Amino acid sequence: MHLFLAIVLILVATSVTADRIFVSNERSNTVTAIDSKTWEVITEFPAGMRPRGITVSPDGKKLYVCASDDNQVRVFDTGTFEELYTLPSGPDPELFVLEPSGRRLYIANEDDNLVTVVDTETREVLAEVPVGVEPEGMAISPDSAFVVNTSETTNMAHFIDTETNTIKYNMLVDQRPRYADYTADGKRLFVTAEIGGTVSVFDIAEDGAPTEAGKIRFEVPGVQPEWLQPVGAKVTSDGQWLFVALGPSNRVAVVDARTLEVEKYILVGERVWQLAFTPGEEFLLTTNGNTNDITVIDVAQQTAVRSIPVGDQPWGVIVAPNVN
């Protein structure tokens, strides 16, 4: 009897500390929740019209979803999946970034050429920052001094001073920039260009000023160059590896983030779009929009280890750690 009780307690503790993976499904207007211990789908719940960008609060208790066609951000409890409230977002929110404190949310408004700054506690709009045409990608420096927005049609990365909410630097990149990601030390920034087929690399000075340090290009035997479309990107916390989702080529590139050399390509599902690490970076998750699944990549082995079906046209992915 005591042994049985001990086993039950262990199972309960394991379930309590499990991380939950959340995937926004753009076409089915839902979010899929997955248990990272078992890799099983827990549920799929309504998340507004055309959910795309997705992130979690620093404590892992709140899930933020860009409901693009609702023109607002929907906020959910990561434990119960219940909708708590909405935040103003500006028109057509696509991607956003939450500052490390969790207080300010910076939202790209694709249709209005703005970055909207929202206070997550008061639920008020603090500022609207004019940027280039069709803003999408969002990144925040580790010290929260700068937010970077990429504008698809202007082909620029805009460096926004978070103290003044004004653009301090504009950097040209290749055609249709989609995503930006800082290294953990804030000394380097990567910006993907979907149509340009490149990743622009910027070295960042102590005052936040960017200098272009190079470009990463991709080539896969048997794959047409126009299919190699960089979209999502994630760099490991040690600054060693950069993973780049290459859209309709159905591959994730593995890049040495220091030498900028492509080391290998990992075959995943169709139209790979966004990426997210599990909290310990043991695994990398990809959203595959045309096969309606996510791929789980073993980061150390740099190989795909499983596929998990989700909703219709998965777009974004994030992990909420240690959900009760």
Brief sketch in words of this structure:
The chain is mainly beta. 5% of the residues lie in helices and 53% in strands.
Structure write-up:
The protein is mainly β and 324 residues long. It has two domains: 23-98 and 106-119 and 126-130 and 272-288 and 311-324, Methylamine Dehydrogenase, Chain H (7 Propeller); 133-264, Methylamine Dehydrogenase, Chain H, CATH 2.130.10.10. Helices cover 5% and strands 53% of the residues. The protein is built from one helix and 28 strands. The strands form seven sheets. Strands 3-2-1-28 form a four-stranded antiparallel beta sheet, with no helix packed on it. The longest helix is centred in the N-terminal third of the chain and has 15 residues, at 2-16.
Task: Tell me the CATH superfamily of the largest domain.
Answer: YVTN repeat-like/Quinoprotein amine dehydrogenase
**Could you give the order of strands across the largest sheet?**
3-2-1-28
Instruction: Give the overall shape, derived from the CA principal axes.
Output: globular
Helix fraction by DSSP (H/I, runs of at least 4): under 10%
CA(first)-CA(last) distance: 27 Å
CATH first level of the largest domain: which class?
A: Mainly Beta
Note the total helix count. Answer: 1
